[in-house]
Design goal:
The complex is a heterodimer of chains A (379) and B (234).
Chain A lengths: L1 H12 L1 H37 L5 E6 L9 E4 L2 E4 L1 E2 L2 H6 L4 E12 L2 E6 L14 E4 L9 E5 H6 L7 E4 L2 E9 L11 E4 H7 L7 E2 L1 E6 L5 H11 L3 E4 L1 H6 L9 H29 L1 H9 L4 H35 L10 H27 L3 H6 L2
Parallel strand pairs in A: 6-11, 8-10
Antiparallel strand pairs in A: 1-3, 1-13, 1-14, 2-3, 2-5, 4-12, 5-6, 5-13, 7-10, 8-11, 9-10
Chain B lengths: L4 E13 L5 E13 L3 E6 L5 H8 L7 E6 L2 E2 L5 H11 E4 L11 H9 L6 H14 L15 H13 L5 E5 L7 H18 L2 E6 L10 E6 L2 E2 L9
Parallel strand pairs in B: 3-8, 3-9, 6-7, 7-8
Antiparallel strand pairs in B: 1-2, 1-4, 4-5, 9-10
Helix pairs in contact in B: 3-4, 3-5, 4-5, 5-6
The chains are: A alpha+beta (379), B alpha/beta (234).
């Protein structure tokens, strides 16, 4: 145990320097944990709403006024104009677009109603894997509906219960669990033609939302611009647009978070090298004594590394705690976000450890190569 | 019957090259043999090369030329690893300024000398405590060096030097920072330890009372052992 008790006592003797080093590692780890966790939350919060419905873009025509009385067309809580379902064919011809799926989304009071094409099983307002009870719809279902599980529970609705929406009369065939992050989360889902017929006016062949998936997600900005250029007044909504509406999330991507963390680590390493070199210089005589009593170079190097490992270990641990605390402070109110991701914590701890090893390598080498007689002569 | 020779120095030279281009022969073509178990004392003026000689015998420094044969092994030819092993196992150093690690207690200072050996924790602690008891410091085991008197610190240093049961004890002005009574006490401890364990002691000192303890007194001047010395003590 002597190397450890010796290390602890040496650090206690130079407590100010030790505290500064530990603070450096705390900053490294806390920065990494907070920034990477936040970046992941940012990514989750912006991409999840679209990922959940398998789309890259939502295309709507925004309505300038809120209609009243007979309900209104909405998409992503925005009021929108209806447009021809046949536009999907034209949209699909835009370069880079893989698929365009028509959706009718309407609201009456607090109830949100969706008409969709059940044959579209990759990109849709509701997908077969959302069903928790009963079944998904088929294109032959004319008066069948799927209802959000929470909504059904709240209104004592079960499979087989009748449910009406304006002119439409439906029977529940399935209950679906729709995540709150789903941007098109609604209460009632029916076949598209049945939905069009249920609305007060004649809406045959009209939809108000197009869910667009692209071959390469990097093409989203280019495709968005082309849609705007081709259809005046069209509003494409991508993950980055959703980000603008996300509060309490630091707008930073994960790569930037890592880069910032590594820069902080490099600065800490340089600073720690400086303090460790000073420490080794002050201990030159002591190192001479250790060599005289039989310590080898590797014993000396180990001693320096043990001291560094204790500092990085303590700094890493406190940094993880502070990082989780800061992440919780920033993201605690968000759902679906991991506050303490073990992988991020491990990565933070590992970064501190690597920083510590790098920071002590040079001072340790400097100490090890000291000649015992010269070291003993040092005051 | 002739005793075994434990230290044999043949034409040993240590030269320092100063920046001015000047050469200093701290040890100059020195020949010396010391039999096993002898308490040998070297006296000489400051700068005569005594400490350099101890450093060469103790493997802390390498000679410019000549050989240092200790316990049948020419240590000037040992590699780094074997030199460390030699220092750890064959020699124990006692310095004028005690050279204890200030942050470690008396026990831990002795443990530090045992740390590189593969000794179990409990065995190491017990051995350190036994050594402290043997130098009369049973009641000071948990004291830091700055809580001990100069004499007590030197006793800890002696216990540390004895920790690895070395064949040779090298004492570099061990009484230099002590009053006469304490110095005598220290020399007595070293003398007893060497006689009990059959250790060879090579001491360099200025103190006149060393004659009471030494088997052979040598005089060093200008890096050489003098055959017809003028005793600087008397």
């Amino acid at each position: 145990m002597i190397p450890y008790s010796y290390a602890l006592k040496e650090m206690r003797r130079r407590k100010h320097r030790t505290i500064v080093n530990v603070i450096g590692f705390i900053i490294v780890v806390a920065t990494l944990v907070t920034l990477v966790s936040t970046a992941r939350a940012w990514d989750t919060s912006t991409s999840q709403p679209l990922k959940q419905i398998g789309t890259d873009l939502i295309l709507i025509y925004s309505a300038p006024v809120v209609p009243s009385g007979t309900g209104c067309f909405i998409a992503n809580h925005l009021f929108s104009f209806p447009f021809e379902q046949s536009s999907m064919t034209e949209i699909q011809q835009v370069e880079g677009i893989k698929n365009a799926v028509p959706i009718l989304m309407h609201r009456m009071g607090a109830v949100v109603f969706v008409g969709f094409d059940p044959e579209e099983k990759e990109t849709n307002a509701i997908l077969p894997n959302n069903i928790v009870e009963g079944r998904y719809l088929t294109s032959e279902d004319t008066n069948a509906a799927i209802v959000d599980y929470e909504y059904a529970k709240l209104n004592n609705l079960t499979i087989g219960s009748p449910i009406n929406y304006i002119k439409g009369k439906f029977q529940i065939v399935g209950l679906a669990n729709i995540d709150a992050a789903n941007i098109l989360k609604s209460h009632i889902y029916v076949n598209l033609p049945a939905g069009q017929n249920a609305l007060p006016e004649n809406n045959t062949g009209l939809v108000n939302v197009a869910l667009i998936s692209v071959y390469d997600p990097r093409d989203v900005p280019k495709v968005s611009q082309e849609l705007i250029d081709k259809w005046a007044g069209a509003t494409p909504i991508a993950a980055t647009d959703l980000a603008a509406s996300t509060s309490n999330v630091l707008k930073i991507n994960e790569q930037t978070a890592w880069n910032i963390s590594i820069i902080v680590a490099v600065v800490t390493v340089l600073f720690t090298i400086r303090t460790q070199v000073s420490t080794v210089s002050e201990r030159t005589h002591e190192i001479g004594i250790l060599k005289a009593i039989g310590w080898s170079k590797s014993n000396i190097v180990n001693q320096i590394f043990i001291e560094s490992a204790i500092q990085t270990g303590v700094g890493g641990l406190i940094g993880c705690i502070i990082g989780v605390g800061l992440t919780w402070y920033l993201l605690g109110s968000m759902s679906g976000v991991t506050i303490a991701d073990p992988l991020i914590l491990a990565a933070g701890f590992l970064l501190a450890l690597i920083s510590g090893i790098v920071a002590s390598a040079y001072p340790a080498w400097k100490a090890a190569k000291l000649s015992p007689t010269e070291a003993l002569r040092a005051i | 019957m002739q005793k075994n020779i434990i230290i044999q120095l043949d034409q040993l030279t240590k030269t320092y090259h100063l920046k001015t281009g000047e050469q200093i022969h701290a040890v100059n073509n020195l020949n010396l043999t010391i039999p096993q178990g002898e308490f040998c004392t070297i006296i000489g003026a400051s700068g005569s090369g005594k400490t350099t000689l101890l450093n060469l015998i103790g493997g802390l420094d390498k000679p410019t030329s000549g050989s240092v044969i200790v316990d049948g092994e020419d240590i000037s030819k040992l590699n780094e690893r074997d030199t460390v092993k030699f220092r750890r196992e064959k020699v124990g150093f006692v310095f004028q300024s005690f050279n204890l690690i200030q942050t470690l207690t008396a026990t831990e200072n002795i443990e530090a000398a045992l740390a590189p050996s593969e000794m179990a924790d409990s065995e190491r602690i017990n051995h350190a405590l036994t050594l402290l008891e043997s130098v009369g410091l049973k009641s000071r085991i948990n004291h830091l060096p700055n809580e001990l008197s100069a004499g007590e610190q030197q006793r800890v240093a002696i216990a540390r030097a004895l920790a690895n049961k070395p064949k040779i004890l090298l004492l570099d002005e061990p009484t230099g920072n002590l009053d006469t009574a304490t110095g005598k006490e220290i020399m007595k401890i070293c003398h007893c330890a060497s006689k009990q364990n059959g250790q060879t002691v090579l001491a360099v000192t200025h103190a006149s009372y060393v004659k009471e303890f030494t088997d052979r007194l040598l005089y060093m001047q200008d890096g050489k052992i003098q055959t017809n010395p003028v005793d600087p003590i008397n």
